[in-house]
């Protein structure tokens, strides 16, 4: 049996790529892509949705685990997921049951905002500033903020690929500064809101960017890195290392 190394690839023969044996008599291109994605994101990248539907341990593509529900969350009235899904909200996703959800922005869709409120959502955090979003959300009975206003920090959706993450990597002690202002302060408040610790923006929380996809995913990944970190102590070397890898992924994968 002839096996051709990938760097000498000649289609029409079995090949080996990323330690994956790929037969000739199948769609080799798809298998090559799959092998590359598995190496980049881990094999659970392909099974996250299936695992979630089966209520098994849920993963994100980068091996972050969804936290268990607290007793307070268990006692809260359940969010009506079926009602929300009936709205056809683009990229809607349950991140933490009865507490955290993501999806596309709904600034010009007041009926869907009303449906979110009826379904049990209490607060909306927008990653992007939109006209009328706050007005329509509050008219539906929802608490609302965009990240620009969190802590009066001027935080914006693109900060994850600019100086914000570099500051935390180069100066992990900044995260412990109770008097710090600006975008790090805004980030800390963002983490608290998504953790369900904000009285002003109580959970369940719905957040997202324009489409609720790329930028939403990366902000959620940043949240997962920092969600359990004390805001009164410098970031640990392990967390800084995660931020370095995260920053590289943002630059290499999401070029918006």
Overview of this protein structure:
Helix content is 38%, strand content 11%. It contains 10 helices and 8 strands. The chain is globular and about 65 Å long.
Brief characterization of the structure:
By secondary structure, this protein is α/β, with parallel strands linked by helices. The chain has 10 helices and 8 strands. 38% of the residues lie in helices and 11% in strands.
Order of helices and strands: EEEHHHHEEHEHEHHEHH
Strand content: 5-15%
| Structural classification | alpha/beta
Q: In DSSP terms, counting alpha (H) and pi (I) runs of 4 or more, how many helices?
A: 10
Q: In what order do the strands lie side by side in the largest sheet?
A: 4-5-8-6-7
Largest beta-sheet characterization:
5 strands, mixed
Percentage of residues assigned to helices: 25-40%
Q: Supply Rg.
A: 21 Å
Through-space gap between termini: 45 Å
Number of strand segments: 8
Average pLDDT score:
82
Give descriptors for this structure.
globular; 256 residues; alpha/beta; 11% strand; three-stranded mixed beta sheet; single chain; disordered N terminus
Q: How is this fold's topology laid out?
A:
Layout: E1 3-5, E2 14-17, E3 20-22, H1 28-41, H2 48-53, H3 71-75, H4 81-85, E4 93-96, E5 100-102, H5 110-119, E6 123-126, H6 133-139, E7 143-146, H7 163-170, H8 183-194, E8 205-208, H9 214-226, H10 237-253
Parallel strand pairs: 1-2, 5-8, 6-7, 6-8
Antiparallel strand pairs: 2-3, 4-5
Helix pairs in contact: 7-10, 9-10
